[in-house]
Amino acid sequence: MGGPKNIGRDIHNTHDFIIASREGISVAVIKVLQNRIGLTNKMMSSILEISESTLQRLIKQKSRLGKSESEAAYEISKIIAKGIEVFGDEQEFTEWLYAKNTALGDERPIDWLDSSIGREQLEDLLVGIQYGHYS
């Protein structure tokens, strides 16, 4: 997620991230995540449930994210890490994110990032792919 500089502390486990999310992580983490999987500001603002202008203001002011936005960033970073682990390559994972998927009712995985439940389902789907339940 960009390391201690962006988060504001070392993260070794979920407890560490809970503390960091309460304090708010740097909006720089969002830019790292966007660059990793090709998310536009419009897409990211939808995922974070904030307006695009609010996201742009946070980026411009180099602000810290609120608790819910920090938690969403953490969940997305976990999905990215799992996806790279499963596919063995960041590019292949990104291509998977943007392709329609029958396990998701022919929707794109990227479109499931906008809710906590959707992000949880994506993690489950990636584990299923890892163990050969889906392709």
Question: How do the helices and strands follow one another from N- to C-terminus?
Answer: HHHHHHHH
- Count of helical regions: 8
Main sheet, how many strands, which sense, barrel?
none
Helix content range: 55-70%
Distance between the termini: 27 Å
Low-confidence sequence ranges: 1-8
Strand content: under 5%
Shape, per Cα inertia axes: globular
The structural domain count equals 1
Q: Using DSSP, what is the number of strands?
A: 0
- Average pLDDT metric: 89
The value of Rg in angstroms is 15 Å
Structural class: mainly alpha
Can you characterise this structure?
By secondary structure, the chain is mainly alpha-helical. The chain has one domain. The chain contains eight helices and no strands. α6 (67-87) crosses α7. The protein is globular and about 45 Å long. The two termini are 27 Å apart. Pfam families: Xre-like-HTH (PF20432), Xre_MbcA_ParS_C (PF09722). GO terms for molecular function: DNA binding. InterPro entries: Antitox_Xre, Xre-like_HTH, Xre/MbcA/ParS-like_toxin-bd. Residues 20-75 form the Antitoxin Xre-like helix-turn-helix domain. It comes from Adhaeribacter rhizoryzae.
Which key phrases capture this entry?
single chain, 135 residues, mainly alpha, globular, disordered N terminus
Outline:
This protein is an all-alpha fold and 135 residues long. The protein has eight helices and no strands.
Chain-wise SSE layout:
Elements: H1 3-7, H2 14-23, H3 28-37, H4 41-48, H5 52-61, H6 67-87, H7 90-98, H8 116-130
Helix pairs in contact: 2-6, 3-6, 4-5, 6-7, 6-8
